[in-house]
Write a structure and sequence with these properties.
Elements: E1 2-6, E2 15-20, E3 23-27, E4 38-42, E5 49-53, E6 62-66
Antiparallel strand pairs: 1-2, 2-3, 3-4, 5-6
């Protein structure tokens, strides 16, 4: 499990996430919220290095990989 951080929902605040295997699990609800909303995306190979960023300038971070 590898931790990742990013603004997954474009609200201007970073949220937590993890990468397990080749799947990213990104929490889109605040950590202080009683309800957890998580988005999962399978991307890359399990051996790839995970990175995150706003690749298209839309103010929402998404997953990426480095091989």
């Amino acid at each position: 499990m590898i931790p990742v951080v990013g603004d997954w929902d474009g609200d201007g605040k970073d949220n937590v996430g993890v990468r397990m295997g080749n799947t990213f699990y990104m929490r889109t609800s605040p950590v202080t919220s009683a309800t957890e909303t998580t988005t999962s995306v399978a991307y890359g190979d399990a051996s790839d290095l995970p990175i995150t960023g706003d690749w298209d300038g839309n103010h929402i971070d998404t997953q990426g990989i480095v091989r």
